[in-house]
Amino acid sequence: MRANILVVLLILLAGIGASLLLIPHGAELALQKFRDRDYDSARAAYEQRYAAGDRSGATVMPLTRLTLAQGDVDRAIALTEAFLAAEPSSVEARELLDRLYQDAQRPGDRLENLKALAEMRNSADLFRELAYAAGFRNRMALKAEALVRYCTLRPEDVEAQQELAALLASRGDHAGAVDWLLRADDRARGNIEPDSRELLMSLLIDLVREDEAYERARRWLGERPTVADMIGLASQLAAAARPDLGLRLIEPQVTGPQVTGRAHDLALELTYIDLLIATDRREQARTRLSALSGPVEDVQFGRLLALEVNAGMLRAALEATKGRDLHLVPDWVLAGLAETALREGDRNFPDRLYRELGDEFLDDYPLLAANIALGRGDPAAAAQWAERGLAGDGLATGDRLGAIRILDRAGRHAAASAAFDRLPLTGNVPEESLEELAALFIDLDRASAGLAWFTARRQAMPSAAAGQGWARLAAKAGDPAAVADWLAGQPKLPLALLQDIAGSAAERAASGSDANRPAAALALAAAQRAFALDPSPRSRLALATALTATGRPADALPLLAPLLDAGGAEVEAAYIAALDGAGRSEELARHLTAKLARDNLSDADQQAIVTMLLDHKAYRAALPLLRGWAERQGGDWLSVYADAAAKANALPDLADLLQSRAAAAPLAESEDSLYRDTLTRLGRKADLRRYLLARATDDRLPADRRREPASSLLALGDKAGAEQALQRLAAGQGPQSEDFKQLAYLWGPRPPAAGLDWIEARAKAATSPAEQAAWYERLADYGGGRRVIAGLGGQGATPGQPALKTPYIEALAAAGKGKELADAVRAALAEENSPDRLRRYARLAEQTGQRAAAAQAWTVLLARKPDDADALRQLGMLAYDENRLADAERLLRRYVASGPDDYEAHYFLGEALTALKRPAAAVPFYRTSLTQLRARAGRGDAAIQTEANLLNRLGKVDDAVALFEGLRKRRPADRQLRADYASMLIENGRLPEARRVLALP
C-alpha cells in the first residue's frame, strides 16, 4: 500500500515539474506578446531584457521594431547604433539603420552607414545610391570612389562612366578621366555625349596625346561624315588649342575628290578658312576668301567679315559693309575696321558707326571712341572715354599708352601723369609702341625712369625702336656724349627725333650742370642735322640755342633775328641768352632794365619777366621774388614757387614754408597735396607720417577731410597710425558709420582682442539702449558673442531693455546656446512688436532646435500681424506634424489664400482635409500643388515622388504608377520607396502589383 502511495506521489511531482516547464519565461513570453500584437507589453518585456544586459539580436532587433512602430525613431536609432557597435558586421542591422536615418532625415549619418553597407554587400546599386548621396552632401571624393566601384561592377553603364570622368577631371585627375572616357566611348561605339567628346579631346591634348585625340576624332567622323559632325569635331580641336589637328581632320573632306556635291556648303568652307588662318596659312585663306562669289546671307555675313579681318583683308571687309546692316557684324570686327578707317583718314565709317550703333557699341571700345571723339572735335568726350578705358583691365599696353596720350591731348595732364605712373610696364611692350612710350616718359616728367627702362630694353631686346627711344631719353636725362656717339653712327633719323634730342640737350646745356659741354655739343649736332632737313622756325630756334650753349652765341643772333618780330617768350629767352653769351652785356642790361624801370610796369609785366627767367631756367634768380609772392598771396604763386624750388633743388626750403603754414592753420587741399608730395620726394617718411596723423586727428578739420589722411597712413604702411585716426573718427559715431566700417575692414573678419575691447567699450559707453544694441550687434558679428552674453546676460538673466534683447539673442544663437536662447526668446516675445524681429527670433529658435520657442514666436508674430505668410505657413505645418488637423487646415487655408508658389503648403493642406474625411475639399489644393510642382525646374526624386502621391490623390493612379516605376528603376535598393509604392497600390486595391513590388509570392 505504501509502495502505491509512493508511486502516486512521484507521478504528481513529475506532472508539476512538467507543467512548470510549460509556463512561458523571458524571451518566450516577450515573443508571445509580440505575436499576439500586444505591442506595449511586448516592448516593456524587451526593454526589461535590454535593461538586464541582453544585447543580442534576438532582443535588440524586435525592440527596435517595436520602438519604431510606436513612433520613437530616435530611440530606435540609438538601439541599432549600440547593437552595431557590438556587431559591426550585421548586414540586417545596417539595412535597418539606413531606413531609420532616412526617417529621421539625418543624411550625414546615413551617408557613412550607406558607405559601410555598400562595402559589406559589394552591391552596384548600393554604390550608385552612395554616389547620389555623397554628391548631395558635396562629398566629391566619396562620390568619385563610389562611382569607380559602381562602374567596375556595372561596366555596361556608359552614362555613369561619363559622369565619373567629368568628376575626376574637375578634381584634377586627368589621366583617370581619360581612361574612363575611353572605356565609355569604346563600349558606346563612339556614341558618347558631345560634352564628353569635347572633354576627352581637351584632356588628351593636355596630356600630350594629340595623335590619339586625332585618331579618336577620325573614328567619330566615320566613312561618310555629315557637315555638322565635321564642323563640330574640328571646332572642338581648335578650342583645345590644336587647330592644326582640326585642319588635318577636315581638309581631305574639303579639298579631296569626295568634295563633289558639298562644295557649296558655305559653313564648312568658312570653318576650313578659319582653321587655315589659325594655322598661319593666311595666303591660302585669302585665296579661298577671294574665290567666294556673290553676297552671303545675313546669318553668315558677320563671320565672313571676321575671317577677312583676321586674314588681313581690311579694305575688302570695309567695302563689304556698304549697304549691309552693321548689327550683323561682331563688335570686335567693327572696332578693327573703324581703327583702319581712322588710320587712313576715312571719317565716313566711324561716323556711320556712331550714327547707327551709338554709345552702346562704343562702351566696349573706349580707345576707339576717344579717337572718334577727337576727330569730331570733342576733347571733353575724348577724355571721358580715355579714362573709362584706363579704369578697366581690358586695354593692352599699347592701347593704354594711346589712352594716356589722348588724356594729355585733351588737356588732362594730371590725369595723364597719374595713369602713366600706374602702368605695369614690362619687356612685353610691343616695338610699335616704344616711340609713344619714350615721348610720354619725357612729356610727363619721367625721363630718368624712362631712361632706365629703355636701357634695360635695349640690352635685352635690341632694335631700332629701342635705340631711338633710348637716345631720346638719354638726351634728356642720360649721358650726352653717349648719345652723340650713337647719333654719329646713324646716317638717317626722323626729323622729330633729331628735334627732340636737340631740344633736350639744349635744356641741359642751359642748366649750368657738369654735363653742360657734352650736352651743348649734342644739341648742336642734332640741331644742325634737323636744320639741314627742315629749316623751319623750330629748327632755326633749336640751332641758335645750341650755338649759344656751345660758345658760339654770336652765330646764334643772326638766326634769331628773323624770329623776333613774331615774338614769344621762348624766342626772347634765347635772344637774351645769346646776348649774354656774346658778351653784349650792355645791350642785355638795357633790354632788361628798360622792362623793369618802367613806372607803369604792371603786375603782369613783372610776372612776364619772372616767367622769362623761369623759361631761361634761371630758377635760383627767381626764387626770392617767387617766395615773397607765395608767402603773401599763396594760391597759384605757391604752386609756381614750388615748381621753381623743385627745379632749383630747393625742396627743403619749400618744405619749411609749408610746415610753417601747416602749424598756423590746416592747409588747404592743394597745399596739403603739395606738402605731402614734397616730403615724399625728399624721402622724409617719418615727417610725412607725423603730418598725416596730425591732420587726421585735427578737430579743426571736418570729418570728411580727416578720412583721407587716415587712408594715406595705411598706404604708407602705418597701420597703427591709421587705426588711431579711424578710432578717433568712429568714436563719435555709431557702428553704421563709414569710418567704423573702414576700421573694421582694417581689423579683418576677426579683429584682435584690442579691437574687440574697443567695440565693447563703445557699447558700454553708449548713451542710449539703441546705440548700445548696435555696438553689441557688431561685437557679436566679429566673434565677440561671449562678450555680448556676458555683458548683457549678467547672471543668466535676459536684458531688460527691449533694444538689447536682439543682440543678446543673436549672440546666444551664434554660441549655440539653445536652451538659453529659448528662454531669451520667450522673455522677449511679450514686449516685441516688430514683425521682422519676431520672425528672426523664430528662425533662430528653429536653427538651434528649439521648436517650442519657435512656435511661440510664430504665434506672437501672427498675433501682431494676422496675415504674415511665414507665420501662417510655419504654424500650419507644425499643426499638421502634431496631428492638429483642424488647426492645420485653418492656418494653411489662410496662407494659401494669398496665392503663394508653394506646392508643399497646398499638398499638406490637401492631406489635412483628406485626414479630416473631406477628400472632395482637398482636390483643388492637390491640383494647385501639382501645377506648381510641375512648373519647378530641376526636380529631384523627392519631388517626383510627391508628384506621384498627388496624382494618386487626384485619381490618376496609372500616372502615379508610371512615376513610381521610374523611381524604382533608378533606385531599386530603396526599401522605403518600395514600401510607399506598395502602400499606394494596396490603397487602390491593386494587390498583385503590390506583391510584385514587394517581391512577395
Explain what this protein looks like in three dimensions.
The longest helix is centred in the first third of the chain and has 21 residues. The chain has 1001 residues and is an all-alpha fold. It is 76% helix and 0% strand. The N terminus is likely disordered. The protein has 60 helices and no strands. The two termini are 64 Å apart.
List the helices and strands and how they pair.
Elements (H helix, E strand, L loop, with lengths): L1 H21 L3 H10 L3 H13 L5 H13 L3 H14 L4 H13 L3 H15 L2 H13 L3 H14 L4 H13 L3 H14 L6 H13 L3 H12 L5 H13 L3 H13 L10 H13 L3 H10 L6 H13 L3 H7 L10 H13 L4 H9 L1 H5 L3 H10 L3 H13 L5 H13 L3 H9 L12 H10 L3 H14 L3 H14 L2 H9 L6 H15 L6 H18 L3 H13 L3 H12 L4 H13 L3 H12 L6 H13 L3 H15 L1 H13 L3 H14 L4 H14 L2 H12 L6 H13 L3 H13 L6 H10 L5 H13 L3 H13 L3 H9 L8 H14 L2 H12 L5 H13 L3 H14 L4 H13 L3 H12 L6 H13 L3 H16 L6 H13 L3 H14 L4 H13 L3 H8 L3
Helix pairs in contact: 2-3, 3-4, 4-5, 5-6, 6-7, 7-8, 8-9, 9-10, 10-11, 11-12, 12-13, 12-14, 13-14, 14-15, 14-16, 15-16, 16-17, 16-18, 18-19, 18-20, 19-20, 20-21, 23-24, 23-25, 24-25, 25-26, 27-28, 27-29, 28-29, 29-30, 29-31, 30-32, 31-32, 31-33, 32-33, 33-34, 33-35, 34-35, 35-37, 38-39, ...
The strand count comes to 0
Radius of gyration: 45 Å
The overall average pLDDT, rounded, is 77
The proportion of residues in beta strands is under 5%
Report the end-to-end length measured between terminal Cα atoms: 64 Å
Shape: extended
With helices defined by DSSP (H or I, 4 residues minimum), what is the helix count?
60
> What structural class results from the helix and strand content?
mainly alpha
The level of helicity is over 70%
Report the sheet with the most strands, covering strand number, pairing sense and barrel closure.
Answer: none
Provide the low-confidence segments as ranges.
1-27
